[in-house]
Amino acid sequence: MKKLLSILFVSFLLLCPIKIEASNVSIVDEANILSNDEEYELEQYYKQIAEQYDIDIVAYITDIPTDNIDLQAADYFESLGYSNGFIFEINMANSEYDIVILGEEQYLAEYIEEGMDYVYDSLSNGDFYGACRDFAYFVDEAHISHDYNENQQNDPQYNPQIEPQKASPLSLLGISAGTGGVISLIATLIMYKQLKTEGKKFDASNYVKSTNFNLFRQGDIFLYRNVNRRRRPRIEKNNNHFHGGGSFTSGHSSSGHSFSGGGGRKF
Predict the structure, then answer these.
(1) Is there a domain that residue 254 lies in?
(2) End-to-end alpha-carbon separation of the chain, Å?
(3) Would you say residue 71 lies in a domain?
(4) What's the confidence (pLDDT) of residue 223?
(5) What is the CA radius of gyration of the chain?
(6) CATH at residue 72
(7) Is residue 103 within 8 Å of residue 77, measured between CB atoms?
(8) What is the torsional sign of CA 38, 44, 49, 53?
(9) Which residues of 210-233 are buried (b: 16+ CB within 10 A; e: fewer)?
């Protein structure tokens, strides 16, 4: 009887559908470049983007060399249990970076080249936190630009309404500080007018004892300096929408799923 119940129980487990949850990972820093605070800030921002567009977004920093960074990024994205979204890989061993899109989000593949340009400036300056932040900006802007360009094609007069901006906390703080400064100035002037106990003095001789106060001047001579300058290439960023139409590579991950990537680029 016990054997029969065991068989029935195992059969029940095999027939029941099992839902496999994704790992819910967005920042993977195997090279230990980012600080804990930087990882936390990026995770919060990536989570916001992921929830807004119902996708997965990952920044992967590794020191494992590869001959195909597109495939390496795609395989790692799927190893986390993800199937639809963006992954940004920084490969320290290759001094190379890449942006890869998998799943239904591949309709934005035409923006990959502009995304590669967008993060290059931070990478070339050694700002890896800034590059990961710029990647998230790119993902957000790619969706906005696609919707904007689609509406422009359907209606050349399309111009989204811009809501009036609310006063920022910094501006409110500035107003409060300015108001307090004016009140303090008025109060100080009132107290200044009341100070009539002492007349104006042109020197401080009455307060100085000749036996214990000596003034002297001392200086160091700066002989020369030598500065070496080297121009660093920069890509200017602007607030315009991405235009799309850029080049990208296509391939299949080790599990057979298609992806679109940037083909890798040195930094």
Answers:
(1) yes
(2) 68
(3) yes
(4) 73
(5) 31
(6) 3.10.310.50
(7) no
(8) positive
(9) eeeeeeeeeeeeeeeeeeeeeeee
Q: Which residues contact 102 (CB under 8 A, 6 or more apart)?
A: 74, 77, 78, 82, 83, 84, 85, 87, 253, 257, 258, 259, 260
227 assigned to some structural domain? no
DSSP class of residue 212? Answer: S
Residue percentage of the chain with pLDDT more than 70: 65
pTM of the predicted structure, to 2 decimals: 0.59
Query: Is residue 29 classed as helix, strand or coil in its secondary structure?
Result: strand
From the list 141, 96, 150, the residue with the least C-alpha distance to 261 is 96
**Amino acid at position 92, single letter:** M
pLDDT exceeds 70 at position 240? no
Closest alpha carbon to 74 in 264, 261, 267: 261
User: For residues 90 and 106, is the Cβ–Cβ distance under 8 A?
Assistant: no
Q: Provide the percentage of residues in the chain whose pLDDT is more than 90.
A: 38
Distance CA 97, CA 73 (A): 10
CA 50/CA 86 separation, integer angstroms:
10
Domain that holds residue 255: 22-156+249-266
Cα–Cα dist 91/264, whole Å: 10
Distance, CA of 71 to CA of 258 (rounded, Å): 10
Which range among 11-15, 50-54, 219-223 shows the weakest confidence by mean pLDDT? 11-15
Q: Is residue 201 part of a domain?
A: no
Residue 5 pLDDT: 47
**Overall average pLDDT of the 213-239 stretch:** 61
Number of domains within the chain: 1
> Greater confidence, 71 or 8?
71
Range from 150-159, 216-225, 246-255 carrying the lowest mean pLDDT: 150-159
The dihedral region occupied by 198, where left means phi > 0, alpha psi between -120 and 50, and beta the remainder, is beta
